[in-house]
Design a protein that fits this description.
By secondary structure, the chain is an alpha+beta fold. It has eleven helices and twelve strands.
């Protein structure tokens, strides 16, 4: 078992604060398991490389969320340095972060997805008012529902603000119904959670503010719906080649059935996060979940 572990957290994305929360929780859990743990708040790439050279970790625990950590950038660096790391490798991380590519793979694998189009902010500003409503607008590569908007009326379009006109957006048919999620751990999905936000939709605030969302675990669903959710989660996890853990999100209503939304290859590990909650339900403690990730850490071999 690796004893010298560096937890990388923070980073540059909109999910920085959530990553810091996850990282602190992970570090404490690993210390309780007897590991020697250092933490690194990623604010500068050169400082990260210096810290890796100084600490010489046996394993890096990648607790970063969003761009740089979750999109394959840091995994690629660790591959080059030949330092084993937790979670998915560069390829699965990059694809999982890119909602357009993920949906293409899901569709080809027989997983039901909502109709979508990819376009830039500039293109959307021109044709957004002509698209059939309701629809969802979200950045192609971002997490934690950052920048997600639902357009039901023409007026909603004028509330959408993105600074970069070249930013790629995913425009997706809005699927009404119940919000569901499934953890896939070591290739196996075990249970479905329903998220019931108190007003609005399951956005960043509802995800990370205590008391804003009710987690129903296990979700009260027909057996065939549960089976479909579990099957879809395992299929996309394996198609992308995810390592150890992922979490897939769905919408369900009787008319549309189970519709896949996206996969998270680096799920949050905060006190409100869904993966630790599902793991606990399945009899796996937070500490043991962290250790599973450490024990399965790997890097791409140099050839």
């Amino acid at each position: 078992m690796a004893q010298n572990i560096m937890v990388i957290m923070g980073g540059f994305s909109a999910e920085r604060e959530i990553s810091l929360q996850s990282g602190r929780n992970i570090a404490e859990a690993l210390r309780r398991k007897g590991c020697s743990v250092t933490t690194h708040d990623l604010t500068d790439s050169r400082k990260l490389i210096a810290a890796l050279n100084r600490n010489k970790p046996d394993v890096v625990f990648n607790a970063l969320h969003g761009n740089w950590g979750e999109d394959g950038t840091v995994p690629a660096l660790l591959d080059l340095l030949q330092i084993p790391y937790t979670h998915s490798g560069m390829g699965a991380s990059y694809i999982g972060m890119n909602k357009h590519l993920t949906k293409l793979i899901a569709r080809d694998a027989g997983i039901k997805t909502a109709f979508w189009r990819k376009m830039t902010v500039r293109e959307f500003s021109t044709i957004g008012s002509t698209l059939p409503r309701p629809y969802v607008v979200k950045p192609v590569s971002d997490g934690s529902s950052v920048g997600v908007c639902i357009v039901r009326e023409t007026e909603d379009i004028f509330q959408i603000r993105y600074d970069n006109p070249d930013l790629e957006l995913l425009i997706e048919k809005y699927i009404p119904g119940r919000e569901l999620t499934v953890m896939c751990l070591e290739g196996k999905a075990g249970v479905v959670t329903e998220m019931s936000p108190k007003g609005g939709f399951y956005d960043y605030r509802h995800k990370y503010t205590a008391g804003e969302t009710l987690h129903i675990l296990p979700a009260d669903l027909p057996d065939d719906v549960t089976a479909t959710c579990l099957s879809y989660a395992e299929t996309i996890h394996n198609k992308l080649g995810c390592n150890t853990v992922s979490r897939s999100d769905f919408r369900y209503n009787p008319e549309d059935g189970v519709v896949f939304l996206e996969i998270n290859t680096h799920p949050g590990m905060t006190g409100l996060s869904l993966v630790p909650e599902q793991a606990k339900y399945l009899g796996i403690s937070y500490e043991d979940l962290c250790m599973k990730l450490v024990e399965n850490a790997s890097c791409r071999p140099l050839k």
